[in-house]
Amino acid sequence: MTEKRTISPWLKTGLELGPVILFFIAYVKLKDRSFTIGGSDYDGFILVTACFIPLILLSTAVLWKLTGHLSRMQIVTAVLVTVFGGLSVWLNDDRFFKMKPTLIYLLFGTVLGIGLLRGESWLRQVMEELMPLDDAGWMKLTRRLCAFFFGLAAANELIWRTQSTETWVYFKTFGLTAALFVFFISQAGLFRDHALPDDGDNT
């Protein structure tokens, strides 16, 4: 098995968010343009999506090479970007790529929900090293995050089906990211009340 390695948090963040930021910049520059390739006309969004697929795969591969590890979320995201981005490009239909966040959040919400029905926090298995919580804390956080993921899926569906592509791109780039940040900030009370005591406290 590949040994897990630690890299700079800034480099890790850059590899994870860099493709999304580049997607947004490229879209803003090309959104009003149309390109004829192989006799077919493609708008800027489709062309940017076509470039985003290899970019996300490259950044994921570099992250795996540097750390020796990929989270389940990173793997699933890369797969869904490839599948639904590829369908959007192949069929020249941006709806497939816009549905990707919905499917990602539905998948994670469902997985967490299945664990909850079994009386388990599967979130704990992937985040325990980052947030040492007691059993009750993990169950509360998992229930809240499960509901939050379903809420994000519903929000993405509402936005892409009722708003313009430009509005959806802004929502995808900034809205969803900000929502995740606000969610975890809002859980400060839970982290405080259910944090495991530091081993050093017993000395």
Automatic annotation (TrEMBL):
Q: What does the record say about its membrane topology?
A: Multi-pass membrane protein
Keywords assigned: Cell inner membrane, Cell membrane, Membrane, Transmembrane, Transmembrane helix
Q: Does the keyword Transmembrane helix apply?
A: yes
Domain of life per record: Bacteria
InterPro entries according to UniProt: YciB
Q: Name one GO cellular component term.
A: plasma membrane
Protein localization: Cell inner membrane
**Entry keyword Transmembrane helix:** yes
Q: Where do transmembrane segments lie in this chain?
A: 13-30, 42-64, 70-91, 103-121, 169-191
Q: Name one Pfam family in it.
A: IspA
Function according to Swiss-Prot or TrEMBL: Plays a role in cell envelope biogenesis, maintenance of cell envelope integrity and membrane homeostasis.
| Family named by the database record | Belongs to the YciB family.
What protein name is recorded for this chain?
Inner membrane-spanning protein YciB
- Organism of origin is Primorskyibacter flagellatus
As recorded in Swiss-Prot or TrEMBL, the protein's gene is named yciB
